[in-house]
Amino acid sequence: MDPWVHIVGGGLSGLSLAASLAQFGTLPGRVLISEPVPESLASKTFSFWFTEGERNFLKPEHVSSRWSVSQGSEATVHRGHQFTYGTRSGRAVLDDALSAIHNHAQIELVHETVLTKPKATYVFDSRPCDIETHQVTQSFVGIEVQFEHAHGISEVGLMERLVATDSGVRFVYLLPLGPDRLLVEYTEFTTVPSDFSELATLNEHYLMDKFRNHSYEVQRTESAHIPMGFRQRSEHFGIPLGARGGMTRDATGYGYRTIRYACDQIAKDLIQNDVVKPFRRSVATVWADRLFLNLIQHRPDAIPQILMQIANRMTPDKFAAFMMNCAPWDLFHLLRAAPAKPFTCALLGRYQWI
Ligand SMILES: Cc1cc2nc3c(=O)[nH]c(=O)nc-3n(C[C@H](O)[C@H](O)[C@H](O)COP(=O)(O)OP(=O)(O)OC[C@H]3O[C@@H](n4cnc5c(N)ncnc54)[C@H](O)[C@@H]3O)c2cc1C
Predict the structure, then answer these.
(1) pTM of the entire predicted model
(2) Ligand 1, residues 6, 8, 12: which to mutate, most atoms within 8 A of Cβ?
(3) Phi, psi torsion values for 98, nearest 5 degrees
(4) Residue 225 lies in a domain
(5) Bridge pairing between strands 122-125 and 107-110
(6) Is 123 in the same domain as 244?
(7) Which residues, including other chains, have CB under 8 Å from residue 246's CB and lie 6 or more apart?
(8) Tens digit of pLDDT for each residue in 17-41?
(9) Atom of ligand 1 at shortest distance to CA of 47?
């Protein structure tokens, strides 16, 4: 018999959906997850903003109430009250999901690559889309470093050393994972996907420059090209899920929080109503994110100043709420904080006036 649900890809979204389905007792049929390398999830870390009420669902392992943005000598530090910045390891996501799957008699993970559309009542497709389909790409290489002594970095560096490049913007993301552990991640929002070896070199230079007198050891690396908007549609095997399904934010690449909630809702709809509602972002968010991506494409030189002004003018909680796309009015707060001229020129398509 064909399975009831076939999930192609057992990364964050595929395993999140399977784990959410596993919370229901007897299912209407078999659930199959096809994933060639489940362990690859363990080499990622997922960060997000959360409120206290979301802690049990999103399960952060490391938390910080302060985050910063900097360009040259200018820096803005935010301290969240309602929102905290949290991080969960891919290892924890993987272990939780595998244990839920193993404990459910009707759910099975198969180590395989799917090449044609499988037969099932519901097919979900979470294969990453080809890089050629990205409108803008977020390219990054991260290294997790263990220090012998405390590294002294207490807040999350969301975007440090922001600079414009020919094809976008570049910054270093700093994530303290304890007093003696740090993730350093050179990142670009770019129209030309970056060369990983160049970003890796920048990470090394950063460490040598900042921690000249420290001894440290590299524990782990992660790298990716994440889509920031798509310029063309891809053919799906079934219902698109995860980044393929538009669940990563176009303007930021953040996806963990949306994917967890969206997959949980899909599982509930399937069990309770036997339907799947396609994932949709609000029209206003799509519009604002598109405007920002257009600015990256046409006037990357203006982006560092725009981001600095937004970080300066928004309250930390409103900034975090906007980043996590909580409600339509979060966009209104952003537009009030953003410099009017570049966004107006982008709206008119007159990038040369910025
Ligand atoms: C290294 C990294 C760090 C990130 N950090 C953050 C973060 O801090 N915060 C945040 O919010 N978001 C983050 N993201 C963005 C987003 O949350 C992730 O991209 C997330 O993994 C998307 O989930 P997904 O299920 O769509 O894709 P994936 O997790 O990439 O899963 C897709 C799976 O499909 C499998 N697959 C591919 N082809 C086939 C095939 N033919 N048959 C079967 N399986 C196939 C792959 O092996 C893969 O496991 C990060 C992304 C990456 C890559």
Answers:
(1) 0.95
(2) 12
(3) -65, -40
(4) yes
(5) unpaired
(6) yes
(7) 230, 240, 279, 280, 281
(8) 999 999 999 999 999 999 999 999 9
(9) 8
